[in-house]
Amino acid sequence: MQPSARMRRGVSAMALSVSANRDSCANRGGKMTEAYSPVGGLTRRNFLKSTGVAAAAVAAGGAGAFAAGGLAQAATYEAGQTEGDGEQIFCGVCRGNCSGTCKLNLHVVDGKIVKTSKRQFNSFPDGRVDRICLRGLSHVYNVYGPNRIQYPMRRVGERGSGEWERITWEEAIKEITDEWKRIQAEYGEQAIAYTRGSGNLGAISGVASPMYNVFFNKINASMIKIARDQANTRGINRVVGNLGDWVLNDPSDFKNAKTLFVWGANITDAQLHDWHFVADAQDAGTKLVVIDPIMTQLAARADLWIPIKPATDAALALSMMYVMVNEDAVNKPFLRDHTCAPFLVRSDTGKFLRMSDLGVEPEVIEVEAGQVSAASSENKGAQVGKAKTVQKIIDHPAVLDADGAVKSLAEAVDPQLNGTYDFNGVPCNTAYDLLLEDIMEYAPEKAQEICDIPAETIVELAHLALDGPCTHRLGWGSNSYTNGVHAAHANITMAALTGQIGYPGAGTGVGDFKACWGINAVVKGMTAAKYPMISALALPEIMRTDKWKGQDYPIRSLYVYAGNPVSNQVNTNEYINDVVGNMDLYVVADYTFTDTVKYADIVLPAAHWFEQQELVPISATQCFLHSEKAIDPLYESKSDFEILKLLAAGMGHPDLIDLSEDEYMSQVVDTPGLGALGITYDAIKENEDMYWYADKPWIPWKNAEFRTESGRMEFYVENPTVQFDVGQEFDEDREHLPRYFNPTEAYEGSPAWDKYKLILLSERPRFRVHSMWSDNAYLRELDPEPTIKMNPADAEVRGIADGDYVEVYNDRGHCVARAVLNDGIRPGCMVYPKSWQQHQHKAGCWSELLTSEYDPVGVNESYFDNLVEVRVWNEE
C-alpha cells in the first residue's frame, strides 16, 4: 500500500515544522511555543498551511527538498522487503499496549524514517500474525510530529499552564537529584516514588524492564503500581493458578471451537490484530456469541448478540450453570478428578478439612521455585536472594469416598461430589454442594430480571456452552466494575462444570496477550526493595494524609515513565489536586506532550521506540522480538535506559548501571529454561523473533494441570487474598465462591441514582491505544474530536439532537463532546471512545467522571462503575 500524496506531503511538512519550532524556541529564550503546547497541537488549518510551506521549500530547493525527495522515493514501494537506492530497512516492533507487537519495516532515507510497512514474522511462515494497522502506518507522525518533546524543560508557570523554559540535561538531572536528596533527608527515603503506565512493552526501557527497579531500589524509593485491568486476572487466577495475567488458548485455536463466547470485548477495534482469527473461526463454522450491553462492531458480526444489562455478567454465568446442573448435564468425572468439588469444607472456619485435622502428619517436600514472568507486576527486586527450591507442605484435603468413609484425596478411589460429614460436631460439606447452594439461587427466570435477558435465551446459552468444545474470551467490560472479580470467577467456574478447558477449542480466559516465563529478573545491580509496592488507587489517600496503613508515609516526588496517569487514571480532579498538587517535584519522561507532561515540574525528552534498540518479551504472538535502532534519537532526547544512568550518577551511584544495553538484555534472556528451547539473546537478534513455547498453537492448562496448591481447579477459594494490601478489610466469606452482587454505583437504585440515571461506559477505539496516538494528525482526520454515543430515546427526553455538543456530568466532574445518536447503544447507557487528551475537549475530560472507589479484593480501577447525566452544552 502506497502512502497518499497527502501523507507524503505531511511528513515532509512535519520535518520542516519541527525544525522551525525548535529554532523559534531557541529565539524566545527557551519558552515553549504554541506548536509545542498540547493545547495548540497541529490543527488541520496549521497542517495545510505547513504543507504549503513545505511545498514552497521543495520548489526553491531548500532544506526540505532532500527529505521530500526521499519520501517520494520510498512511496514508490509496496509494503515489501526490498531496499531501494539510498534506502535502508530496519526491523521495528510496535510495542504499545494493544499487545499486538507487530513487526514493521522501518524505511530510512538519509537518516530519516520515511514510512513503515508490514514485516514478516519468521516464527510464523504462514503469515498468520503479519499485519499493520492504521496506527502502525502512521508512526512517522509520532516520530516527527510537532508535539515531540525536544529538550529538557523546567516549569515556569502554574502547574498545568504549559509554560516552560528550556534547560540543559545537566541542569535537569542536577535539579531532580538535588531535590530528591533534600526530600529524602526531610521526609524519609520512601518519599521518592516512581510509577509507569503501559506505553512501552520493552525489556530495557519499557514496562518489562528490570532497570527501573535496579535504580529506584538502590535509593529505596516507593514503587506505585497501576491498578487497571486486573479484576479478571484476580477472578480467574484464584481458581486455576497463575500462568500469567491474561491467559487463554492462542486465537488461532478459535476455529476449533464449536462456539466462541466473547464477553465484553470489542476485538475488531480493541485487539484488531486478533479479529481475523475470529473471522477465520466463523468461516470454519464456529458460532460467535457476543455478550455486551452495546451493539459493537463485533456484536454486529455475531451469530447471536446478547445485550446484557451492565455489571450483571456474574448473574448470567451463574444462571447458565443453574441450567447445566438442573439438567444433570455437568461433567462429573472432570469435577471429581480435576477440581476441588469433592473437598470437604469446614463450616466453622470455611477451610478445607485436612488430613492433619484427622491426625495425619503433613508431608514436607522440596520443589522448584516458580519462574519469573516478563510481565510480572511485582518489583523484580523481590527475586533477590530467592532460593531455587522451596519447601512445600502437603496436607491432603479430606474427601468422602464411595464407601462413605473419609479419606485422603490421594487414597480415595471414588471421591464423592455430594455429601456431609460431622467432624467433632463441626458440619462439613463438599465444595460442590456449597457451590450448588449459590448456583440454585439463579434460575433463568430470576436471572432474566437481573440481566434483562429472556429466560429461554439463558437456557439456549447454557446449551451452547455445554456443546463443546467451547471457548469463552473475556474482555475488559465486566472487569471494570467493583464486582468484576466475581464475573471472571463465575465464568472460569463454568469451565469447571463443563470440563471445557485445556484442549483444542476449549478454554476460558482473557487471552489478550502473554508474557514469557523464565526470564532472569536479577540483573547486575539489582537489590531487594526496602518498601512494599503500593497501588496507585491508594496514592490519593496517602498524599492527603501522609499515612499508609496507619503509619507515617509521606511521598513528595513522583517520577512517571511510559504512562499518562492524568489522562488514564480514574477521577482526574482527585489525581491532579491530591496527588500532583501535594508533590514537591513531579517529573515526567516522555517523547510527546501528554496531559501528564502538562502538569510536570521537570520534563525529560525520551527517545521514540525506533530511536533505540529493544527486546520485547510481552506479545500476543508469544514471541520474543528484537527491535532495531533505525535512527539516532532526535533533538536532545535520550532512551529511558540512558536517563536512568544519568539519574543514578546524580544520586551518587555512577557505576550502578555500567553494562551496555546488549549485556543487560543478554542477562534477562540467557537463562537455562529458555536456553533449553534454543532461545538466547544472540539468537533473538539474529532471527528477529523467536516463539517461546514448545507447541503451536499454545493451549494453557493442557492435561488439566493447574497451578493451584492442589493442582486442581479450586472454584472454592480456601484462602482469599487481595490484589494489593492497602490495609483494607474485605468479606472473606463472600470471596470463597463466585457471587453476584451490585456494583458500587452503576445500577438502578444506587445512592447516586436520584441525581444520575445514565451508566457511562467507554470503548477502546482503533485510532488510539489508551492515550497513545491521540495527537496523531493523520488519525485525527479520520477521528477528529471526542464523541459520546447515546440511544435516541435517552436523547429525546433530554432535548438532545444528533451532532449537538453536550455536557456529561456528575459530582466528580464533567466533559463536553459531540453527541452521536445510535440505536445500538443500550437505553440507559452512554459510550465514549476513551483517552482523548484534555485539550482536545471543549471542556473537561472523560476521566474526571470516573469513580476512584474500588473492590477491596480486586483493587482495580472501576472505569464503568459510574452514573452520569447529560444536557446540551451552554458553552459556559
Topology readout:
Blueprint: H1 5-27, H2 44-59, H3 64-75, E1 87-93, E2 103-109, E3 112-118, H4 134-137, H5 139-144, E4 153-155, E5 164-166, H6 169-187, E6 192-196, H7 211-218, E7 222-225, H8 231-240, E8 259-263, H9 267-270, H10 272-283, E9 287-291, H11 297-300, E10 304-306, H12 313-326, H13 332-338, E11 344-346, E12 363-368, E13 389-394, E14 398-400, E15 406-408, E16 420-423, E17 426-430, H14 431-439, H15 444-451, H16 455-466, E18 470-474, H17 484-498, E19 507-509, E20 514-515, E21 534-535, H18 539-545, E22 547-548, E23 551-552, E24 557-561, H19 565-568, H20 572-579, E25 585-590, H21 595-598, E26 602-605, E27 614-616, E28 618-619, E29 623-627, H22 640-650, H23 661-669, H24 672-675, H25 681-687, E30 689-691, H26 732-735, E31 758-763, H27 777-782, E32 787-790, H28 792-797, E33 805-809, E34 814-821, E35 829-833, E36 867-872
Parallel strand pairs: 6-7, 6-24, 7-21, 8-9, 8-18, 9-10, 18-19, 24-25, 25-26, 31-35, 32-34
Antiparallel strand pairs: 1-2, 2-3, 4-5, 4-26, 11-17, 12-13, 14-15, 16-17, 20-28, 22-23, 27-29, 29-30, 31-36, 32-35, 33-34, 33-36
